[in-house]
Here is the input.
Amino acid sequence: MTGALWTAVDEYITHMLVPPDAALDGALEASSAAGLPAIQVTPTQGKLLHILARLQGARRILEIGTLGGYSTIWLARALPEDGRLITLEADARHADIARANISRAGLDAMVDLRVGRALETLPRIAAEGGGAFDLTFIDADKQSIPEYFRFARKLSRRGSLIVVDNIVRDGRVIDAAGRDPDIQGIRRFNEMLAAEPGICATAIQTVGAKGHDGFAIVLVTV
Ligand code: SAH
Ligand code: DHB
Ligand code: MG
Here is the structure.
């Protein structure tokens, strides 16, 4: 029952504060029609990402885990005209759907979608030396979050923001003995954060249309 209430409240907030939008709604429809898993951020979470990117005055954004490009569109829309977003996706089928959705949103020129496993594409991005990312959104496989965070940290500047999705997973994050590699990845990431100098971090648990989960927010301070 709780889940139904969380969803109803999410729908209420979305109805009040997130007006219908052809590109965003179209991206959800196309993703669903193509059979992509409905694991994208919710509209309220997408708008939070957008607000965070605007607060950052972001000109360069990195996203790890594109899916159908729903969060990509929210983030890219926070960029100035000459801003750039690089988004990384391992699944070529997801990338095809995302490319079409991003295109329909009129964001082709801003978004650089790179297909491949992020642990292979990230070293290339680091080698390109394109400058620091103002915001990084980590939202791919959960077992590699520590490695993604390591890259994000390296590709940041003082004042950069790193947002990490799905760090609560129905509360399973506190299961220290569990064997689930996703949970182990999240727990290793938290241990890393606790020991990491030069950052200011917190994590917020969330309930809503996607159940009980949460995200971490990390401000790079040195
Ligand atoms: N950020 C998206 C949702 C991403 S879902 C949104 O909110 O709209 C997670 C995505 O990460 C999936 O599309 C999955 O294919 C991709 N993924 C999983 N493992 C990956 C890897 N090793 N490298 C890059 N992408 C990966
Ligand atoms: C899953 C992945 C996500 O990025 C998410 O937000 C929710 C669920 C998953 O793989 O189950
Ligand atoms: Mg996610």
